[in-house]
């Protein structure tokens, strides 16, 4: 859901006349929409949902979030930076359509991106206007459903992260539930049945005809690709603000069923892990849960990817587990996650061969590896941090060696790096390939870790030390 198309552009900067204002005020609608203002905290509970959606404070909050998220243009080509002007000209008509239940969402732009494990993931990019209205709708609907969701549901919920689900799974294993039913829902976002979803929404929000028609309009809006519009009778494409909440509404039925059966489980969006004590119990429960999902919920289970196994052999949200002393379990980065990172970085390093090394590190490399570390840092990754740092420095030395090209240039740079003349000559003229030389002792001596620290290369080892120290200082004694 977080991938963007090549059409993505940055939002236009605020005009100089607004530079003195606080960020929220500078990005707010600022007169682009009109209406009776209802102050925050004074929105009466008896107000209908459409009135809460059109509340100026709710719309301002939605506008700021859409601007901050940036994102690609939809089928109409309008960029985020054009939204305020568009609303200033067209809001009275849009508001009237919303109040009358006559607003028609535009088709979403269909984008297919490859999955790491094969196949493609379908994204639907709404227009900027529809993203704005969906965000406003999301802010109204979330307080209604959020308190009713299961404590074992972690995906796309306020104050909950993927690592919280992983830690919950770790706790189950330490209690003795060391067999996992790793259930994969086949193309879940593409298979959501509209009729069952709408019935749940209407049951929870009776009488809210305008909201029901708006949600149904978003569900059935076509998907456009290459100028052709495909009708939709099921599914809620990833890429829209409301899609995560709608998916949780659908899968809450599964959560409630698992709770009723007394299962230990964790769910993050459509990633479902159920923990039992024996393989036999796992096989029996897996068959029963699959039957419930397919017969009652009208969804599909991917039988090839769904397994009953030991958690140490599976991955969950990019993490895996390992046995420690006694009943303790450890959290580690799943090997596939490391492989995927290296594949991404190999492509990046290839692009960096003709670039200035400091610029490449700052603008391209650091954002990727820092983001990856921030997600996986709760795992035990002391030795992995060392391996990744060495691997990355090897790749950067490889870029340097290739950029020098001529043996004489290599000799001069090795001398600048502090090597003796004899050592530099022997190394620069050894006729070995770039990969060998970039990993050899002469390049490690001439361009050690200190050299890359001065270029501000992100270090997994250093960052992990800081993180673990902060965790230790904040943990109760």
UniProtKB/TrEMBL annotation:
Residues 94-321 form the Reverse transcriptase domain. GO terms for molecular function: metal ion binding; RNA binding; RNA-directed DNA polymerase activity. The keyword Transferase applies. Its EC number is 2.7.7.49. CDD domains: RT_G2_intron. Belongs to the bacterial reverse transcriptase family. This is RNA-directed DNA polymerase. The lineage of its organism: Bacteria, Pseudomonadati, Bacteroidota, Chitinophagia, Chitinophagales.
């Amino acid at each position: 859901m977080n991938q963007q198309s090549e059409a993505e552009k940055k939002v236009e900067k605020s005009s100089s006349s607004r530079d003195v204002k606080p960020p929220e005020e500078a990005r707010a609608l600022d007169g682009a929409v009109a209406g009776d203002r209802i102050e925050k905290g004074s929105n009466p509970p008896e107000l209908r949902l459409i009135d809460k959606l059109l509340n100026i404070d709710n719309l301002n909050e939605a506008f700021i979030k859409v601007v901050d998220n940036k994102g690609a243009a939809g089928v109409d080509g309008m960029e985020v930076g054009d939204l305020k002007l568009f609303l200033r000209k067209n809001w009275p008509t849009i508001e009237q359509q919303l109040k009358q239940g006559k607003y028609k969402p535009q088709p979403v732009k269909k984008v297919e991106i490859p999955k790491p494990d094969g196949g493609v993931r379908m994204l639907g990019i709404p227009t900027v206007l529809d993203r704005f209205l969906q965000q406003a709708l999301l802010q109204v609907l979330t307080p209604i459903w959020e308190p009713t969701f299961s404590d074992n549901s972690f995906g796309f919920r306020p104050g909950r992260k993927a690592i919280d689900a992983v830690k919950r799974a770790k706790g189950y294993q330490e209690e003795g539930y060391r067999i996992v039913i790793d259930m994969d829902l086949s193309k879940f976002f593409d298979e959501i049945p509209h009729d069952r979803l709408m019935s749940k929404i209407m049951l929870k929000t009776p009488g809210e005809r305008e909201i029901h028609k708006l949600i149904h309009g978003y569900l059935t809006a076509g998907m456009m690709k290459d100028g052709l519009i495909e009708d939709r009778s099921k599914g809620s494409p990833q890429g829209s603000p409301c899609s995560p909440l709608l998916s949780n509404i659908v899968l809450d039925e599964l959560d409630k069923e698992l709770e009723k059966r007394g299962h230990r489980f964790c769910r993050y969006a459509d990633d479902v892990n159920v923990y039992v004590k024996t393989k036999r119990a796992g096989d029996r429960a897996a068959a029963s849960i699959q039957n419930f999902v397919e017969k009652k919920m009208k969804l599909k289970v991917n039988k090839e990817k769904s397994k009953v196994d030991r958690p140490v052999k599976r991955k969950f949200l990019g993490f895996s587990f390992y046995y420690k002393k006694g009943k303790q379990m450890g959290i580690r980065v799943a090997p596939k996650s490391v492989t995927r990172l290296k594949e991404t970085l190999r492509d990046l390093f290839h692009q960096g061969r003709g670039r200035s090394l400091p610029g490449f590190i700052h603008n391209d490399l650091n954002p990727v590896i820092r983001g990856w570390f921030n997600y996986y840092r709760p795992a035990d990754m002391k030795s992995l941090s060392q391996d990744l740092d060495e691997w990355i420095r090897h790749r950067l030395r490889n870029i340097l060696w290739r950029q020098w090209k001529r043996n004489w240039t290599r000799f001069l740079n090795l001398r600048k790096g502090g090597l003796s003349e004899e050592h530099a000559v022997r190394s620069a003229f050894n006729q070995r390939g770039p990969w060998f030389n970039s990993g050899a002792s002469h390049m490690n001596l001439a361009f050690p870790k200190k050299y890359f620290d001065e270029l501000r290369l992100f270090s997994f080892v250093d960052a992990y030390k800081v993180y673990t120290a902060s965790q230790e200082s904040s943990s109760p004694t």
